[in-house]
Amino acid sequence: MGLFSSTTYSNMDDLYVAQLQDIYDAEQRIAKILPKLQEKASSAVLKQSFGTQIAESKAQIARLEKAFSLKGESPQGHACEATKGLIKEAEETLAASGDEHVIDAALIANAQRIQHYNIAGYGCLTNFASRCGQDEASKLYAECADEAGAADQRMTQIAEGSVNAQAASA
Question: With CB atoms 3.0 to 4.6 Å apart as the test, which of 4, 102, 106, 147 could cross-link to 167 if both were Cys?
Answer without folding.
Answer: 102
